[in-house]
Amino acid sequence: MASPTVNDHHTEITNGKNDESECDFKEYYSRDKTLKLRDIYIPTCTELFYRENPLKIVRSQGTYMYDQLGNKYLDCINNVAHVGHCHSYVNNEIYKQMSACATNNRYLHDNTVIL
Prior knowledge:
This protein has helices at 31-41, 80-83, 88-100, 110-114, and strands at 5-6, 12-15, 57-61, 64-67, 71-74. By secondary structure, it is α+β, with helices and mostly antiparallel strands. InterPro entries: PyrdxlP-dep_Trfase, PyrdxlP-dep_Trfase_major, PyrdxlP-dep_Trfase_small.
């Protein structure tokens, strides 16, 4: 693995091409097409970090995010400090809840207070 460097996003990266994720997702569009679609469908009040050169994150695992080129970024911004990305226990509990009842917190449900 390459030693950490800092790029123009001020984020630690390392070469993550050999890291496997149990939460791998298919990349449907190129970075440019994703950005164009975002500009069409997402309101401008929704901030995009590094607007001039945005990161396209295609997967996450633990405390790391990976871009479409396979670069590995230490995530110091999102809610990773709570449980990390793609935590198997959290994913399983969410899956169980969504399989049972997919509603919001405006209704009373036992699992709302259990989770």
